[in-house]
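Sequence and structure are no longer studied apart. To make this concrete, we show below a single chain and its fold as tokens.
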Amino acid sequence: MKRILLFLVLWVPALCGFAVPDEQTLVNDTKQKVLPPAQQLLDEVIRALPAIPLQINGTLQSKTTDGKTDRKMQLEMLLDWQAQPPQARYTIRDNFGRPLKFLSVTWPAGAEPEYHFMQGDPLVGAPLPPLGEQIEETDITWIDLSLSFLRWKNGRTSGGEEVRGRDCYVVDIDAPKGTPGYSGVRLWLEPKIHILLRAESYNEKVELMRRLDVKSFKKINDRWFVGEIELQSFPSKHRTYLRVQSVYDRERKQYLSRDTAAGDEQAQPTNQVMDKIEIPATTTPPPVK
């Protein structure tokens, strides 16, 4: 069967292969209440993450409710999702390239995540901030950027919905203890290509506070990358856009454990000619809690 490589980047990229659809469609499954376990769906998304280390360079651009840009920053993500243990690091810089914040995350098997946080110019070690706190007055958090909610436990498959023309399973997950400001998240997971298309975060009063939407894809050679992600805060409706500019293949080594956020000179750029596909808009209303 022909396979198409698909990368989900943020937050994070995900390398995916199209699977043979089940004989029974997702719509029929949900009507007949044949719902796969949430953990199975989450594990499939995690297993579909890239098998090779990547460096993703992009921008974060926040906009006011009337569409005016009020903040623009640079973002570098070094991701090795299939390392043992999985590792990632994120560097946020101002529009002139000066470092602002840095976070590295390691996910040891059967243990709590390990974090290393730095800030300032030059970057120096600092106390870890609340991971659900918005970064530099944008609408994105470290939880969003690292897709940490994909590793939260005790999720529930609530049903099925269409997101931008694609059938998805809806998974609800309570926030782990010690996650201030969160009651949980609702995720829309596309089961054929094992990709997250939408995520909503709810505060401690179970009120919608933020929505993450995949807006478009880019193609680099035979690989598909998420090109743009929109994050919207509620009730303000302030928006931030994460846009991918370049992707580099990396060699697996201990670059993620370094104490600095300097780039790796050996990173190899992929073909920079990128086609863009817009996903058709959906008329599906947001879920009602």
Observations:
- The longest helix spans residues 38-47.
